[in-house]
Amino acid sequence: MALIIFDYDGVLADTLDDLLLFGQRACDQLGIKHSVTKADLNDLEVMSFASYGRACEVPEHLVDEFVKICLNFFAEKKSPPAIFAGLGDVLRSLSANHKIAIVTTNSSQNVNAFLVQHGLDGLIHAVYGMDSSGSKAQKISLARNRLLENDRRESVFMVGDSLSDVLAAKEASVTSVAVTWGHQGLKNLLRGNPDYIINSPHELIEIIEQ
Length: 210
Fold this sequence. Notes:
The chain is an alpha/beta fold. It has 10 helices and 8 strands. Strand 4 (99-103), helix 6 (108-117) and strand 5 form a beta-alpha-beta unit. Helix 3 packs across helix 4 (63-76). The longest helix has 15 residues, at 16-30. It is globular and about 50 Å long.
């Protein structure tokens, strides 16, 4: 039995359009004259709403407000984001024999609403969002310690779409799986030297079960 930890935005949830829209709205509300583009996300060293705000030229004293505005837009959205094609089936398959957790810089509330909407809430053992303390690497270690407390020898995988996901996996000494359908391009992901790179969700089953 392995522990598979997923990032949320760009891995499970197709939130790119929402991120760009909400980032622009947040800038507009704060009076920041910046045109938000995908490059603001693709080039981030650390994938978080705070670093996203800084990339959008938000002054440091307004970064927390930028984060709050973006998260509120997600929470107020009438329907949660779409799930990437094939991932629902992959999660259902993996959950039969393995434990699954989510570590994200989004809020646990937004993630849980997404899971309920897509009928996946019963498959996930834990969600560690931005409302949980610690860095992403610390949350990965927390998930491992709590969910594999009886057997630390089991494999742990971190599935992410950003350079910072790969680096967090390495810091936590778990296997990194970088996906190419998310918010950051392959060139940026390769900078972290991930253990695996996958182009479709079903490739994850092959990696876990090998």
